[in-house]
C-alpha cells in the first residue's frame, strides 16, 4: 500500500465517526448561550442538563466508534509485526556472519595501526633520548642544542646552535636522522672535552684559591694565636701589677685603719681625760662655791648679829608694803647688802618701783644701807 492509498484509507475510516467539525461548532454555538439564573430556575437547569446529555451521547458514540475501528487496526498491526519478526529472524544470521567477517578485518587493521603508532612512538622516543644524550633540551616548543669549543674545527666563533621541532624528529628518514645525530655527537664530544678542560682549569683555579685561602687562614690563625698569647701575657703582667697594687692598697688600708683606730683611741682617751678633768673641776668649783657660800652666810650671820646688837632700839619692820595710785603690778625687792630687808612695791613699771626703793633708803635714819644693792626678787 503506497502513501496515497494509505492516506485515502485513513480518511475513509475517520469519516465513520459521523461527527464533523462544523457539527461540533454548531453544537458549541447553540449550547454556549445557556444559563441557569439560580436554584429556582428549573427551566434553565433542564435545558442545560438536556444539552449535556446530548453532548455526552455524541462523545460516547465517538468512543464506541474508536474502539470498533482500532480493533481492526490492532489486528492489522499484530499481523504486520509478526511478519516483520519472521523476516528479521531470517536476515539476522546472514547479517551477523557478514558482520563478524567485517569486524575481524577491521580489528586487524586497527591492530596494525596501533602497532605502527607504537613503533613510531618508540622510534620517536629513542631519537629524543639520543638527542638528549648529546646535549639537546626541550623548551616546550622545540629541541635545542648549544655547542661551544675550545678549538676552531667547526665554526669561526666556536659556537654551533641547532634546533629541531618534534614533528621534524618524527618525520626524519633513518639516513637523515643518522647524519644529524652523527654531527651532534661530534659536537657534543668536542663540547664535553671543552667543558672537561674548563672544569679542570676551574678546579685547578679553585684548588689554588682554596690553597691560598687555607694558607691565609693558617697565617691569620697563627697571628691570632700570637696575638692571643701576647694579650694573655699582657693581661698576666697587668694582673700581677694590679694584684701588687691591690696588696699594697690593702697594706695601706690596714695601716690607715690602724692609725685611725689609734687616733680614735687617743682622742677617746683625751676626751675621757678632759671629761674627768671637767668633772673634777666642777666638783672643785662646786666645793669652792659651797665653801664661799658658807663663808658668806657665816659673814652675813655675824654682820646681822652685829647689826641686831647695835640697833636693838630701832623699831623697823622686816617687810613693808608701799602702795601707789593705779598700780599695774606689785614688785618684790630686796634692799641692802648684809642687812636683809624686803619690800613689796606697787608701781606702774619696774623702773618706777626701783625709784621708790631708793627713796625708801633715804628715809631711814641712823641705818647704813649699801645703796648699790637694790634687786628685784
Strand-helix topology:
Blueprint: H1 3-14, H2 21-31, H3 42-133, E1 137-138, E2 143-148, E3 159-164, H4 166-171, H5 174-310, E4 319-322, E5 329-335, E6 341-347, H6 350-363, E7 374-376
Oligomer: single chain
How many β strands by DSSP? 7
Give the strand line-up of the largest sheet.
4-6-5-7
What structural class should be given to the helix and strand makeup?
alpha+beta
Instruction: Provide the residue-averaged pLDDT.
Output: 80
Rounded to an integer in angstroms, the radius of gyration calculated over CA atoms is 81 Å
Sketch the topology as an H/E string, one letter per element.
Answer: HHHEEEHHEEEHE
Strand content: 5-15%
Major sheet, described briefly? 4 strands, mixed
Low-confidence residue ranges = 152-156, 313-328
Shape: elongated
Termini separation:
181 Å
What's the helical proportion of residues? over 70%
Total DSSP helices: 6
Amino acid at each position: 500500500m503506497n502513501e496515497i492509498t494509505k492516506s485515502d484509507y485513513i480518511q475513509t475510516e475517520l469519516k465513520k465517526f459521523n461527527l464533523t467539525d462544523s457539527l461540533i461548532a454548531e453544537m458549541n454555538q447553540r449550547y454556549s448561550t445557556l444559563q441557569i439564573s439560580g436554584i429556582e430556575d428549573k427551566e434553565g437547569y433542564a435545558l442545560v442538563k438536556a444539552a449535556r446529555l446530548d453532548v455526552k451521547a455524541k462523545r460516547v458514540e465517538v468512543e464506541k466508534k474508536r474502539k470498533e475501528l482500532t480493533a481492526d487496526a490492532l489486528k492489522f498491526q499484530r499481523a504486520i509485526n509478526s511478519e516483520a519478526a519472521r523476516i528479521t529472524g531470517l536476515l539476522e544470521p546472514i547479517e551477523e556472519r557478514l558482520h563478524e567477517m567485517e569486524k575481524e578485518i577491521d580489528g586487524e587493521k586497527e591492530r596494525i595501526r596501533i602497532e605502527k603508532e607504537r613503533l613510531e612512538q618508540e622510534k620517536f622516543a629513542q631519537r629524543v633520548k639520543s638527542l638528549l644524550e648529546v646535549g639537546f633540551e626541550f623548551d616546550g616548543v622545540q629541541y635545542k642544542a648549544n655547542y661551544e669549543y675550545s678549538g676552531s674545527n667547526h665554526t669561526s666563533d666556536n659556537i654551533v646552535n641547532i634546533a629541531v621541532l618534534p614533528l621534524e624528529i618524527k618525520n626524519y628518514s633513518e639516513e637523515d636522522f643518522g647524519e644529524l645525530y652523527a654531527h651532534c655527537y661530534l659536537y657534543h664530544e668536542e663540547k664535553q672535552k671543552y667543558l672537561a678542560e674548563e672544569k679542570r682549569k676551574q678546579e685547578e683555579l679553585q684548588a689554588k684559591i682554596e690553597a691560598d685561602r687555607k694558607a691565609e687562614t693558617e697565617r691569620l690563625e697563627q697571628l691570632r694565636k700570637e696575638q692571643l698569647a701576647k694579650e694573655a701575657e699582657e693581661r698576666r703582667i697587668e694582673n700581677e701589677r694590679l694584684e701588687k697594687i691591690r696588696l699594697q692598697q690593702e697594706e695601706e688600708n690596714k695601716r690607715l685603719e690602724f692609725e685611725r683606730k689609734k687616733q680614735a683611741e687617743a682622742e677617746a682617751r683625751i676626751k675621757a681625760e678632759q671629761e674627768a678633768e671637767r668633772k673634777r673641776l666642777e666638783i672643785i668649783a662646786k666645793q669652792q662655791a659651797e665653801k664661799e657660800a658658807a663663808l658668806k652666810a657665816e659673814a652675813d650671820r655675824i654682820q646681822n648679829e652685829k647689826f641686831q646688837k647695835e640697833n636693838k632700839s630701832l623699831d623697823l619692820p622686816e617687810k613693808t608694803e608701799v602702795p601707789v595710785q593705779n598700780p599695774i603690778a606689785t614688785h618684790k625687792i630686796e634692799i641692802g647688802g648684809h642687812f636683809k630687808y624686803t619690800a613689796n612695791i606697787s608701781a606702774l613699771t619696774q623702773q618706777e618701783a626701783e625709784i621708790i626703793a631708793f627713796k625708801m633708803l633715804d628715809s631711814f635714819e641712823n641705818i647704813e644701807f649699801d645703796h648699790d644693792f637694790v634687786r628685784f626678787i
